[in-house]
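Mods, move this if it's the wrong board.
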Amino acid sequence: MLADWLKGHQVLPEELSADISVLYALGQKELKIQNYKKILHYSPKEMVLLLKGQHLVVIGDHLDIDYFNEDEICIRGHIVSITYQSG
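Not the wrong board. Structure tokens:
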């Protein structure tokens, strides 16, 4: 069957299949994070996300969550720094 063959031969990007978080930055105004696990802290000055085995800390001004779902989150505002911390 074609459906069975497609299941076995679908090509996923390595980042998604390896459960690695992927970050896309649009200047200092927008940050998209794929493969995050959980929002740990949310304020207009700081956001902390749980990634696989570490925390992602976003510091800035007027930070807001534009959208989020189980796979991706988009943070907007004036992003000053993005750091990783052991989790």
